[in-house]
Write a structure and sequence with these properties.
This is Putative nitroreductase. By secondary structure, this protein is of the alpha+beta class. The chain is about 35% helix and about 20% strand. The structure holds flavin mononucleotide. Flavin mononucleotide binds next to strand 4 and helix 7.
């Protein structure tokens, strides 16, 4: 996948889950830019795709089982859609879905992953799902009206680790401060990934140019998705840290960034 490293690196730092939105419509240029990127992302893996609906998040929420939080109306939402067959499809959904979230963030839009099973009978919306496809998550899209976001930003400046686990805790086989700079940068970026109730189910393992992302305990579908999110953050951190390479799904964990050095 073609990663705009600086842009998404910045987006990783500034992204926060937003539940409150202004009623203001999304600017046409912004909407078109996002649609263009989504077109590219939808061509990366056949198992996953993302669609934007110009409907409020509140229209889809009643049909979602397992969501939490108090959302306001939003001018649009993104739907994360996965096929019911295909290897590593949940991890790929997290990886591609987070690319869409970071692109939206870079365009000045607020987002929030809402991962929940969709119950079609509970919705009047026509999502144009094809047979064998399932909606597994959504995100509101719009301009955030959360007036405490400045405070959160301030807090994150004071506490650079934000509300995240320490990197040492995320590396069960040990964290070595002598590791190459790209490895440490990648782990830091991985730790900033979003997850349900901020549980941070990912763990990182490094050796011989490979940075492995795996889940704590049995990898449920949504843990796989979250580790896919973390894998994209890891890749952005690695590339920003000066190495080249690519990601691979499966292998020693749920996903691996392999450096070419
Ligand atoms: C798969 C997934 C599902 C989530 N579901 C919800 C949700 O239903 N409601 C909500 O308010 N936030 C949801 N979140 C957002 C998390 O609560 C949030 O990412 C986490 O608390 C960390 O905060 P941050 O995203 O601001 O860094 C979800 C995140 C992920 C990755």
């Amino acid at each position: 996948m073609n990663i705009p490293v600086k842009k998404w690196y910045e987006a990783v730092q500034t992204r926060y889950s937003q539940q409150k939105y202004m009623s203001k419509e999304i600017k046409e240029f912004t909407r078109k830019s996002l649609e263009k990127k989504l077109g590219e992302l939808n061509d990366v893996y056949p198992e996953v795709r993302i669609e934007v609906f110009n409907k409020s998040i509140k229209e889809i929420l009643p049909a979602l089982k397992g969501k939490y939080g108090n959302f306001t109306e939003s001018p649009a939402f993104m739907a994360f859609i996965i096929k019911d067959k295909g290897e590593h499809r949940w991890t790929k959904m997290g990886y591609i879905g987070e690319a869409a979230i970071l692109e939206a963030t870079a365009l000045g839009l607020g987002t929030c992953w809402v991962g929940a099973r969709y119950i079609e009978d509970r919705s009047d919306l026509n999502l144009n799902l094809m047979s064998g496809e399932h909606l597994v998550a959504v995100s509101p899209l719009g301009y955030s009206s959360e007036n405490y976001s400045l405070t959160r930003h301030f807090v994150s400046k004071l506490f650079p680790h934000r509300d995240r686990k320490d990197v040492k805790e995320l590396c069960p086989d040990g964290y070595n401060s002598d590791w190459p700079g790209w490895v440490k940068n990648a782990i830091k970026m991985g730790s900033f990934a979003p997850s349900r109730l901020n549980r941070q189910p990912w763990r990182f393992y490094y050796g011989e140019g490979k940075l492995v992302v795996d889940s704590v305990g049995e990898p449920s579908a949504y843990k796989r998705l979250e580790c896919g999110i973390a894998l994209l953050h890891v890749e952005i951190g690695a590339l920003d840290g000066g190495t080249t390479g690519e990601v691979e799904f499966g292998g020693l964990g749920l996903g691996t960034f392999i450096s070419e050095e």
